[in-house]
Amino acid sequence: MLGPVVLWHEGRELTITSSHQRCVLALLLLEAGRMVPLDRMVDVLWDTDSAPRTARNVVQQCVSELRRLLATDPEVRLVHRAPGYVLEVDPLRVDLHRFRSLATDARTVDRAAGLRRALGLWRGEPLAAADAPGLVPVRQALAEERVAALEECLAAEVESGRHVPAVSELTALVAEHPLRERPAELLMLALYRGGRTAEALTHYQRTRQRLAEDLGADPGQALQQLHQRILTADPTLTTTASPHPRGTGHATVAPRQLPAPPAPFIGRRSELDRLDTALNAAVHMPTVVISALSGAGGIGKTWLALHWAHRNADRFPDGQLFVDLRGFSPDSEPLDPAAAVRGFLDALGADPSRLPTDLDAQAALYRSLVADKRMLIVLDNAVGTEQVTPLLPGTSTCTVMVTGRRRFASLIDRHGARHLQLDVLSRIEAHALLIERLGKERVAAEPDAVDELIELCGHYPLALAIMARHAAFQPQVLLAELAPELRELGLDMLDDDDPTASLPAVLSWSLRTLTDEQRTLFGLLSIAPGPDTTLPAAVSLTGLPPARARRALLALEKASLVERRQGGRYAMHDLVREYAGTTLPDGAREPALARVMNFHLHTAFAADRLLNPHRDFLHPGPLAPGVLPHPLSDAAAATAWLDAEHTTLLATQRAAIALGYHHVVWNLAWALENFHLRRGHLRDALATWRAALEASAHLPDPTARLRAHRLLGRACSRLGLHEEAIEHLNQAIVQAVHHHDPTEQAHTHRTLALAWGRQGDDRRALDHARQALDLHRALDQPKWEAHALNQMGWYAARMGDFDIARDHCHAALILHRHHHNPIPEAAALDSLGFIAHHTGDHRLAVDHYHQALDLLRALDNTYEVAETLDSVGFPHVALGHHRQARQVWWEALELYREQGRDIDADRVQRQLHDLDKVTEIDRNGA
């Protein structure tokens, strides 16, 4: 934004196709993370009198196109949040917000350096090419921000003694803004301090004359006072702050203990900036500033610490101390703090003959020697806070960098340490690392193989370095040959006789500090279904009491072996997870898997029961010993749990298939059926019921197989697989008749009605609905009778028999309301809305549809919400309510796209296009 408004992704600029898109993007970026109302977007893009009637539609189309553009980055989401949109993105990825953060965090003593970093982000006029009227004042305000930051930066440089190089930039700034007095004042001071007194006085006269001519005013008080002080040669004007103030410590030695900087160093820009911010904030801190880097073995902590230390070495003129505390090493125990303190005393030139013998006394002497000195102390590879505490200086002039695999809770709590957790490299950084190690030509020659290697390594720095070493040792071997080897061999290919060059060995050192219980949990987490897990699932996985499981998870998190994510979820890197699997004790895998599957199954059944209490109740089987299902209070909690655990539940079913747990496979498909339909997860419903059908062949209850055929048939029908749908549904009917199960016959007839209706055969659909109605009435099942009544009414309406249709749907509505069944009640209202619209009562149609929407939204049934929104647009159009029609169709379009319903989405897009043409004709005619 600090120049032309552009998007970059993985090193290339993304194409923004229109000026309106660029302006909408600029506005969303300005408010990153905050909702921007749609009406405000319209106001920004057009003057009040010039906005077309289609303005809201244009903005919505821009949002839709930008969403597709931004979909390439999973960390950026453009979401609808009534009454507008929110761009969910880390603000520091936007140059404007990054500029403001750097400018705010810049240190007072070295403020110039921080502001120079901030100003370096500017590329020209802000918001260039985003030429909406409403952005003009924003552009002017941003330009003013830049000038103010530049003034502040130049002031800091002049005050710190760098007045000579500042003169040329101040001269240009004064020429660009001749009426601003602050740059004129700074230029006068810089000229005077540079021995150019006459030029300083001449510049004052020139400024005074310009102000009088253009503004009819005299210079301000500050400028007049500076002029007077120069005339009187005020000696305080030549006093500048020392750029490197030194204390009067006892030692005369300035140690330079940093090991050689790592080569090559790639990426980590965000982490480096955070470390810079901590250092720049040191002037505001009454105590020593500590940055604590933690992360898994091989993630690059020492690599980052040394690179940062060398990059900032000039900011520590009194020296740099470094010690490897050997907290996680292949061949030694952690270093005794006493040995580390003694090493620092020697480096500081302390007299060995006068050293005290007590550790506390030695630590006190060490603190005395570094007091008031500008020093950097790097404490690498620490095992815990107890190793670090004796090595902390006592004054704020020193900066401490600590690295280790464990999180330094006490340092954070007691000493205000700035914690920085290192993660894997980004794709761009991983790609750059391979280029640096293998050469640009070799990487460019095999782009697909490079991408595969990066993904197989999981962007893990040490894994990438090992694979780069393999490739460098074998320049004649194609990278495309190494990728399949890595896929097949996994960790074995990342092993080495040298433990420091072996990922399994490096990871193994983290286990030394764990208890047996924690190691067991570490191994069991490797087999937990899904990409991550939760505490309740871990309780069942391990069989531990909740409090002990929580403590064990916390220990693994502190050891950087698991990562806690939002929503109380715990995840492991794929390579760490693979290594964890190698530590699992014999015989522990299957019992643990059985327990966690039982946990997910019983909780899923409880959730389904809350979502649909009217559904036939099936029992998932006995609760396994040690399993505690997750408690769910209501339907909202059930939906939230199913949303969060959906991927894990699908993985649980796959694990059950592999182990031959057929009852788990079938019951999970049943428990997820209602949720899949509400959320529009149609392909997942298809996959789970195909697996359930296969599993049903191994189950003793024949009802399981006929239900699997029926529900698989419904899943096929919803996805347009009509022949397969009818085949499964016919088999379900045959089996239901064979096993004398009239209830299943009725359910299957209703599903056949849906299937034939989706194929456009309303007459055959109506016939199946009638057969279902007869069976439900004969069985005295009024709740299901209401379903069949509504189906009959719907297909009668589709065939034009609206009077009969209305009677059936009203009867269905009464029954559903009597039994407090809101989803089918919404379906009946939807049918009545269709009937009212097609019989000319469009206002009644809108009323019915909105009643249905209220019910569906309350139940968070986004699948049916999309269809009802789609339907209500037509009576709105018939009433001339084009704005309301456009609004509901845009919301339907968003939901269809989110649910992967591309055919429906394309149809609604055409409806919106046709509506725009009608609106334009009306406007031109008027």
* CA distance, first residue to last residue: 40 Å
| Adjacency order of strands in the biggest sheet | 7-8-9-6-10
Class of secondary structure makeup: mainly alpha
Number of helices: 41
What is the CATH first-level class name of the domain at 269-421?
A: Alpha Beta
Kindly report the average pLDDT value.
88
Shape verdict: flat
Would you mind describing this structure in some detail?
This protein is mostly helical and 926 residues long. Among the domains are: 7-133, Orthogonal Bundle (Arc Repressor Mutant, subunit A); 162-238, Tetratricopeptide repeat domain (Serine Threonine Protein Phosphatase 5, Tetratricopeptide repeat); 269-421, Rossmann fold (3-Layer(aba) Sandwich); 427-505, no CATH class; 514-585, Winged helix-like DNA-binding domain superfamily/Winged helix DNA-binding domain (Arc Repressor Mutant, subunit A, Orthogonal Bundle), CATH 1.10.10.10; 812-925, Alpha Horseshoe (Serine Threonine Protein Phosphatase 5, Tetratricopeptide repeat), CATH 1.25.40.10. The chain has a five-stranded parallel β-sheet with strand order 7-8-9-6-10, with helices on both faces. α8 (181-193) runs parallel beside α10 (221-231), α30 runs antiparallel to α31 and α39 (862-878) packs antiparallel against α40 (882-898). Residues 240-252 have low confidence and may be disordered.
Keywords:
single chain, 926 residues, mainly alpha, Arc Repressor Mutant, subunit A, Serine Threonine Protein Phosphatase 5, Tetratricopeptide repeat, five-stranded parallel sheet, three-stranded antiparallel sheet
